[in-house]
Amino acid sequence: MPDVQPDRLAFPQPDGHHLAQLNFATAIADLDNPLMAGFVDALAAVNGIAERSPGFVWRIRDSQAAAAQAIIGDPRETFTMSVWETAADLEFFAWNTVHRRFMKNRHGWFLPPATPFLVMWWIEIGTIPTIEDALARLARLREEGPSEAGFGWDNLDGTRAWQTAGPPPG
Q1: Rounded to two decimals, what is the model's pTM?
Q2: Which residues of 3-125 form beta strands (DSSP E)?
Q3: Phi-psi domain of 29 (left: phi exceeds 0; alpha: psi -120 through 50; beta: other)
Q4: How confident is the model at residue 107 (pLDDT cuts 50, 70, 90)?
Q5: Bridge partners of 20?
Q6: How far apart are CA 116 and CA 111, in angstroms?
Q7: What distance lies between CA 32 and its chain's CA centroid?
Q8: Which residues lie closer than 8 Å to 145 by C-beta, 6 or more apart?
Q9: Within 13 Å and on the Cβ side, how many CA atoms surround 27?
Q10: 77-84 β-sheet, strand order
């Protein structure tokens, strides 16, 4: 049985649901700036790995991302939005593929977040999230804290991979 602190909210995966996630990062420079080249140059490859990863269901595509970027309004705000069969599938991708190198190097490309930058929620299988809904969930998480409407890694049972991860692969 997982070690769960009694004062910590945990949101187990309901039957018939997948995990949706939205995460943000504010770039230290415009994406066409040479400071961001290492990140930008690897983005297509990392997205391709995500799409081939076990449990991957959906991610926002470039044309959808452009429309979402117009809603967000800040060209330095980068984001991903995706759906995974389980939290374990997303966690495996994030911490057991080349993506982990980007997590370890993120401080060279992105400003430290002042507020929660990630929101996750359970979504009915077959549903595609909208950027408007995801942004509303992130705002609610920032204002009210974790709930079934939006939560973070700390609100899931089990030890998280970043707590035990060794050096990045390769």
Answers
A1: 0.84
A2: 17-26, 56-59, 77-84, 118-124
A3: beta
A4: confident
A5: 83, 121
A6: 13
A7: 23
A8: none
A9: 18
A10: 56-59, 77-84, 17-26, 118-124
